[in-house]
């Protein structure tokens, strides 16, 4: 250390170091406690270089000791592998200027294998390039990979032999032949390749930090449980109307950040919403808005309200640039990610977990919805179990007839959102969200990318696809295995036995599958056995099959899906509201039929059920 020239602030500036070119590293991925400490260290570097603060001032203000400050400065003025100053990256804890390599200087010291693999790659660059190629091809079994890691390792050892490396040289001299080091290096290369692929969205990450300056530049998506007790009215087998209470519903909202304008929403049943409900909300925000059926007399929309694509048809199917979501499991689903990136053509930003302020616009709207809608209606469940408003607005005597039905709540909610878009907003004074959106588009002559025509159908937007093998159990009997059932009754499949076809299914109705050849030509529909021939969801099928497998319920000749589901609910002691909600979401009726008969294969094509985001027994489209 004594032979090094001591640095000084003035000498660094005289050498022409451009401090303005130093970029602040992105710290969002760091834990909160580490991020705060790193931000203090960055501020200390800025204070030293730009503000001319002394070491004592820096230590008192930022808590960075003089020795730590000097170490950071020494790193900051060094160059990285690309010839750029390390700069403020030196403030990141445990940041290394060079990789940790071990050098053996003494002949008496026996080298171990801790860094022998790195030395091997340095001596033979072609091995490093080979591992990089393996890293671009390798996938784990969970992600659909077919080749094992040991297969790549065997080829790596073969290449070492071609280069003249043999026993007793490394890696043949050790027991596992450097399998662990090979695996560690391959995964490291795979991560580097992934980071390179994400490099083109760096500008999008900057967009997530900058304030949007025009409509559809940034869109927030999130879900919120509606704090209301709701009912469903159905006609039973005796022709009488029965009222059943269900669990509260969810609203999944899509809102524009710049204008605060709600673009669309969907409603979902159950304890939580899934990826299909989320995709319906995104589709509804792109498609021309459709008002729900009017069931409340005297309820009207304000003339100043509405939705953007309702007031200006040219805005229908216009896609946003950046969609911000949280880290809910339904948001992180692989199918959602593929639809957002490949179909909508946007950039998804999931942000840090447990940080609702990252999506402050949609969270603020939910507060507006609570204050002006759900906490002002009879049957509200309040913000917490001990909320006084629950007792004040509860139906007297347990009378369910004065609670809102699902259809009434849907119409009232649509009016509230439409009127919100047309009201002056304090965050964008003196404009209303809808006015600001429409005027910005018109006066700035903005043009947005639109969803392709073939993707505008709701079924196409929410369906899932897979390649499956066609099997045969008779001369003219070809079938496809799907979710534990054999789908058949399509003669053309007999010509594809042993080959692959593509199937397309609606996750809310797997009572039939659509079949396509590998060129995309539609072949027809196939149907399961009679037990599974009535409309039901994919999740319900899997749950019933699991219960049958473990012996929780038993199948009797002539049983149907409602019979099995009733047995499951009785065995687990489901509550009435929970059962009604689950039945409505996955079967289409809150009350299961008491008298069931063996169901035959439907003569006509089953109807779609994804029209409004939830299922009603009388839906026809």
From TrEMBL:
GO biological process: DNA integration
Gene3D superfamilies for this protein: Ribonuclease H-like superfamily/Ribonuclease H
All copies of domain Integrase catalytic, residue ranges: 211-441
InterPro entries: Integrase_cat-core (IPR001584), RNaseH-like_sf (IPR012337), RNaseH_sf (IPR036397), Transposase-like_Mu_C (IPR015378), Transposase_Mu_C (IPR009004)
One Pfam family here: Mu-transpos_C
Membrane-spanning segments: none
Gene Ontology molecular function: nucleic acid binding
SUPFAM superfamilies per record: mu transposase, C-terminal domain, Ribonuclease H-like
Protein name as catalogued: By FrameD
Organism in which the protein naturally occurs: Pseudomonas synxantha
């Amino acid at each position: 250390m004594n032979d090094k020239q001591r640095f000084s602030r003035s000498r660094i500036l005289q050498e022409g170091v451009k401090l303005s070119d130093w970029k602040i590293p992105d710290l969002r991925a760091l834990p909160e406690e580490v991020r705060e400490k790193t931000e203090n260290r960055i501020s200390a570097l800025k204070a030293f270089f730009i503000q001319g603060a002394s070491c004592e001032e820096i230590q008192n203000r930022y808590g960075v000791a003089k020795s730590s400050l000097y170490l950071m400065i020494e790193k900051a003025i060094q160059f990285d592998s690309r010839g750029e100053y390390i700069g403020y990256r030196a403030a990141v804890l445990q940041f290394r200027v060079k990789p940790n390599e071990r050098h053996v200087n003494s002949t008496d010291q026996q080298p171990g294998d801790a860094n022998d693999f790195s030395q091997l790659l340095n001596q033979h660059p072609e091995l490093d390039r080979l591992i990089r190629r393996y890293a671009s091809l390798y996938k784990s079994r969970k992600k659909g990979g077919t080749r094992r890691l040991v297969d790549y390792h065997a080829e790596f050892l073969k290449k070492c032999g071609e280069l003249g490396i043999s026993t007793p040289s490394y890696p043949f001299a050790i027991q596992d032949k450097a399998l662990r080091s090979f695996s560690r290096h391959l995964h490291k290369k795979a991560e580097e390749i992934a980071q390179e692929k994400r490099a083109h969205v760096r500008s999008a990450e900057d967009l997530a930090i900058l304030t949007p300056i025009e409509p559809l530049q940034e869109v927030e998506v999130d879900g919120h449980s509606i704090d209301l007790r709701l009912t469903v009215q159905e006609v039973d087998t005796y022709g009488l109307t029965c009222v059943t209470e269900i669990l509260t519903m969810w609203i999944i909202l899509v809102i524009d950040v710049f204008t605060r304008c709600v673009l669309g929403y969907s409603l979902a049943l159950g304890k939580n919403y899934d990826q299909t409900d989320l995709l319906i909300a995104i589709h509804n925000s792109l498609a021309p808005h459709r008002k729900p059926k009017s069931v409340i007399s005297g309820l009207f929309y304000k003339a100043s309200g509405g939705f953007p694509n309702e007031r200006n048809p040219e805005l229908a199917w216009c896609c946003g640039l950046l969609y911000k979501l949280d880290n809910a499991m339904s948001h992180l689903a692989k199918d959602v990610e593929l639809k957002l990136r490949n179909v909508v053509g946007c950039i998804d930003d999931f942000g840090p977990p447990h940080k609702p302020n990252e999506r402050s616009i949609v969270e603020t709207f939910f507060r507006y919805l609570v204050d002006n809608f759900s906490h002002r209606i009879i049957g509200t469940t309040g913000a917490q179990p001990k909320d006084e408003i629950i007792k004040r607005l509860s139906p007297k005597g347990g009378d369910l007839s004065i609670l809102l039905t699902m259809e009434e709540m849907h119409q009232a909610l649509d009016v509230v959102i439409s009127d919100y878009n047309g009201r002056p907003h304090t965050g964008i004074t003196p404009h209303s969200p809808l006015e600001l959106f429409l005027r910005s588009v018109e006066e700035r002559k903005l043009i947005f990318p639109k969803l392709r025509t073939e993707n505008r159908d709701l079924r196409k937007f929410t369906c899932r696809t897979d390649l499956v093998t066609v099997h045969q159990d008779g001369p003219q009997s070809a079938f496809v295995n799907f979710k534990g059932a054999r789908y058949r009754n399509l003669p053309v499949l007999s010509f594809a036995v042993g080959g692959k076809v593509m199937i397309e299914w609606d996750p809310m109705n797997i009572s039939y599958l659509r079949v396509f050849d590998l060129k995309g030509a539609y072949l027809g529909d196939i149907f399961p056995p009679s037990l599974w021939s009535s409309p039901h969801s994919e999740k319900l099928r899997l749950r019933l099959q699991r219960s049958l497998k473990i012996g929780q319920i038993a199948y009797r000749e002539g049983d149907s899906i409602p019979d099995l589901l009733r047995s499951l609910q009785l065995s687990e002691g489901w509550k009435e509201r929970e059962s009604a909600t689950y039945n409505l979401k996955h079967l289409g009726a809150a009350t299961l039929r008491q008298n069931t008969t063996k169901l035959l294969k439907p003569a006509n094509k089953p109807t779609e059920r994804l029209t409004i985001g939830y299922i009603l027994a009388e839906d026809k489209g």
